[in-house]
């Protein structure tokens, strides 16, 4: 017999056992959140107002920045407020909403990164057909499909996670509600449905990953056929930011969900969760703007100077 009861709230106890982390993570999280917010908002403003940044690549980048703002806003503000108020509870509905939004936005970002790889494939391998293939209507449909697939992904997983009875104590050893930590509270042998969803979604994600790999195989082949070394570098440099973001996103996600999840706190699990939920939205604006002359020129235009072009 299992001691399943009706749940009204969970306790998010990620950093409460370590007084050093308790004192450091609030200012650290606040600075990281502020950096991510400002960087992604700046990209949205630049790609909306500057006429040189109206290509499909920047349209997808604008959506990626919007996703990243929402993505980091799902977890970090709530965690900061909990720590400042010394109240670590989250309602059952709030926990379910947090899991849905987190998985929804992560799935949308992954789908959008696949779309962006296809954009680079068409631009490099079929440049003469680029404008016809990646027209405004097609780009809009791709973005809508990415958001819709993320919504379906989040709905499936939140339904699978909360379709099982939970056995107390209802303490989540994380700073936000995530699926592995919540499933440790399920009664023994119950979360079979969610594990089936995880296996199915991982299989589908792997198929999408193969599509991304195929795109870059064709891109590398096209780049190697360019006669000049300068031409090869210039062409491939347009793919470096996207490739870096894909590696960061996939590595942090895989490292987090393959980590050991237990009913006790783990510094490694907390570090992996921070890596997965906080790092990508914070560094994506830096990755996409650091060596992008068009972005720096647009920013210099707003600031009233050309200083950034020499960086």
Automatic annotation (TrEMBL):
The entry's protein name is Olfactory receptor
Origin: domain of life: Eukaryota
Under the heading InterPro entries, the entry gives: GPCR_Rhodpsn, GPCR_Rhodpsn_7TM, Olfact_rcpt, Olfactory_GPCR
Q: What does this protein do?
A: Putative odorant or sperm cell receptor.
Q: How does the protein's chain sit in the membrane according to the entry? A: Multi-pass membrane protein
Localization recorded for this chain is:
Cell membrane
- Name a GO molecular-function annotation: G protein-coupled receptor activity
Which sequence ranges are marked TM in the entry? 24-46, 58-76, 88-116, 137-156, 195-219, 240-258, 270-290
Q: Gene encoding this polypeptide?
A: OR14A16
State the similarity comment. Belongs to the G-protein coupled receptor 1 family.
Which Gene3D superfamilies does its entry note?
Rhodopsin 7-helix transmembrane proteins
* Assigned keywords, A-Z: Cell membrane, G-protein coupled receptor, Membrane, Olfaction, Receptor, Sensory transduction, Transducer, Transmembrane, Transmembrane helix
Gene Ontology terms: cellular component: plasma membrane
What are the residue boundaries of the G-protein coupled receptors family 1 profile domain, all occurrences included? 39-288
């Amino acid at each position: 017999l299992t001691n399943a009861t009706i749940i009204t709230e969970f306790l998010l106890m990620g950093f409460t056992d370590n007084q050093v982390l308790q004192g450091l993570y609030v200012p650290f999280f606040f600075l990281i959140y502020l950096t991510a917010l400002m960087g992604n908002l700046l990209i949205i403003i630049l790609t909306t107002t500057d006429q040189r940044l109206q290509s499909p690549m920047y349209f997808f980048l604008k959506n990626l920045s919007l996703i990243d703002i929402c993505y980091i806003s799902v977890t970090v503000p709530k965690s900061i407020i909990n720590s400042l108020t010394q109240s670590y509870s989250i309602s059952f509905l709030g926990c379910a909403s947090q899991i849905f939004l987190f998985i929804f936005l992560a799935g949308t970002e992954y789908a959008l990164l696949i779309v962006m790889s296809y954009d680079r494939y068409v631009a490099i391998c079929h440049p003469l057909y680029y404008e016809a293939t990646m027209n405004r209507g097609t780009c809009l449909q791709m973005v809508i499909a990415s958001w819709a697939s993320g919504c379906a992904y989040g709905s499936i997983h939140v339904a699978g996670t909360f379709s099982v009875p939970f056995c107390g104590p209802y303490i989540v050893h994380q700073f936000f509600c995530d699926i592995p930590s919540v499933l440790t509270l399920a009664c023994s042998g119950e979360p079979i449905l969610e594990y089936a969803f995880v296996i199915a979604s991982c299989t589908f994600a792997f198929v999408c990953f193969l599509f991304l790999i195929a795109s870059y195989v064709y891109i590398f082949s096209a780049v190697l056929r360019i006669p000049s070394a300068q031409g090869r570098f210039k062409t491939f440099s347009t793919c470096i930011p996207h490739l870096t973001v894909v590696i960061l996103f996939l590595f942090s996600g895989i490292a987090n969900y393959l980590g050991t999840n237990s009913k006790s706190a783990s510094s490694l699990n907390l570090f992996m969760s921070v890596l997965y939920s906080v790092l990508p939205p914070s560094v994506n604006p830096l990755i996409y703007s650091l060596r992008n002359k068009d972005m720096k020129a647009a920013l210099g235009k707003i600031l009233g100077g050309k200083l950034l072009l020499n960086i």
